[in-house]
Sequence to fold (208 residues):
Amino acid sequence: MCLNSATMSATRLICNIFELAKTISTSFHISAISPTPKRLIRWNSNNQSCTILNVDGSCLGDPIRTGFGGVFRYSSGIYLSGFSGFINNSQDILFPELTTLHQGLILAISLNCGDLACSSDSLLTVNLIKDELPRYHVYVVLIQNIKDLMNSTSVSLHHSLREGNQCANFMAKFGASNDIALYIHSSPPNGLLPLLRMDELGTLFVRH
Fold:
């Protein structure tokens, strides 16, 4: 009334109040907030130019079967070697995550990889290796062995999101589904080939 020098009926005033209240309420509603942009992930997202090792651990089924695995590739994505293994009587996912890293570093020495970029999708594993050695950790010996191997070679350790670690995940599940303690794959298993091809092409995956 003050701004427009006009009167307004009570009914219209009430309607305006309700509409304004609705607008304000909608403005603060979660659905009105712009959605978070989708994050796209690909293999070798750090553009490493050296030999790349992806590792992973797996616990599957009931009863649980535990396995580990890894894949060595050139930075172009071309397959170099791979490994998988089965761990008997273990249901702690951290153990295969550490075991696969340890085994991968041992194999890297035998392959004369030189500069190596190693990626794991287990952030706990990466932090345990990079941080100061936890003296009373249940896997303190295994952790120290990994640290010693890394100190004796040119290795960088990175955390990878699982969408960029699918080939290693395949090998870990392959290990869990077999009874072989350690199997070196000089050529990729058939089921791994499509995943290798997608990584080589730089396929982007949506982060879930």
Notes: The mean pLDDT is 89. The domain at 41-206 is CATH 3.30.420.10 (Nucleotidyltransferase; domain 5).
